[in-house]
Amino acid sequence: MFAVVKIAGQQFRVQEGDTLYVPRLAANNGDKVEFNEVLLVSSDGKLSLGADVKSIVKAEVLSNLIQGDKVIAYKQKRRKGFRKKHGHRTHYTKIKIDAIA
């Protein structure tokens, strides 16, 4: 059984027991969270989509803050002495899918 769920504007294919890195959620370690925006559910080879889906995905927050890889944006204009360097690390939350109900 799997489901496609929308979390923070992104779609994820999940099964029970999966661990995911999702965009940062406002939850603490050990909190239980529920995702109501389930787009598709497949159980026993039957697909349910759209308005037919009546499922909720339940998950537990394993780690509230995980930083992604550093991304550097560098700009330069030749012969002008213009250099600009910016970098950032995206924040993620690690969750474990407990149930698709």
TrEMBL record:
Q: Which domain of life is it from?
A: Bacteria
Has the keyword Mitochondrion been applied to this entry?
no
Tell me the GO BP annotations in alphabetical order. Answer: translation
Q: Which sequence ranges are marked TM in the entry?
A: none
Which residue spans adopt a coiled-coil conformation according to this UniProt entry? none
For molecular function, the Gene Ontology terms on record are: rRNA binding; structural constituent of ribosome
Q: What is this protein called?
A: Large ribosomal subunit protein bL21
Q: Which organism is it from?
A: Arachidicoccus soli
